[in-house]
Design a protein that fits this description.
The chain is an alpha/beta fold and 307 residues long. The protein has one domain: AF0625-like (Aminopeptidase), CATH 3.40.630. The chain contains ten helices and twelve strands. The chain has an eight-stranded mixed β-sheet. It has a four-stranded parallel β-sheet with strand order 10-9-11-12. α1 crosses α5 and α3 packs across α5. It is globular. The chain starts with a strand and ends with a helix.
Amino acid sequence: MVTKTPVIVSSTADMASETIKKEMMILREWNEMECSNKHMQVLEAKEHNAFLCTIETPLVEAHELDRYCMEANIMPSVYLFISKHSSSSKKPSLLVHVTGNWGGDAELGGNPLEISKASGTLVHLGFIELVNEYENNDFLNQFSINVEATHHGPTNLNAPVLFVELGSHEPSWKSQVGGYAVANVVNRLVYLLQEHGQDIHALGKERKIRTAIGIGGTHYAATFDKLMRTYPVGFSHIIPKYHATMITHEVVEQAVENTVEKVSWFVLDWKGLNRSQKDAILPLLEGFDIPILRRKELQRELGTIQQ
């Protein structure tokens, strides 16, 4: 019987991915598996059941992964992508985000108007583990820690997706200290999932993490970043403000249905939405049987729950 297992995904087409993979190889022992698929190398961890699959295509175009894994007799519990992040700012950064295309543009991979499977628990823990790495390693003091809005591909995979990224330009992609930080976070997530029998719900319940979908703000979701640093809440998906006026009920419904946990709230970055964006998004959200809260309302709610 095939058991569910975390699948770490790297790409030979991604410089940062190769840097992170190198650190993953040091953190634990791996055995290479025979794989009939010439487009994927498969390594199996000796401890804490996990696979490290390396593909040739860019990670944003990894839409064949389900098939590749099935052919290798692997059943993913989650996909953990170790990836580069690109930004014109060139600021060293460590980031997490989930994948999906809120609109008809799929220039960066995935399918138009398709939102990936996601876990608020996984986003929260991935982000908090990055924060912990930053706080416990003085060599990371030049890096920023961020959560990004949902974007790019792949969007069609049958297990929750999390990108853990090293940015934002070539010197950072080669950074050993940054690569180690990402590798250590992914290693920790694998361990936590193994400890809970690959049951994300059990892991979230133990940590008392509630799941929400965030709406508003910029691509770098500062409001939702601050909430996750302070409270046990994870944002399975984040809709940035520039999609608020064009988003459809159907694509939001996908985000809700593809969140593995119950979505407890829609959370609005109220100041991160202008009048027209609020006028467009609020009636749409009211069509769901999910409470709609502003940031301060969520803080009060979570404060009460924690007491």
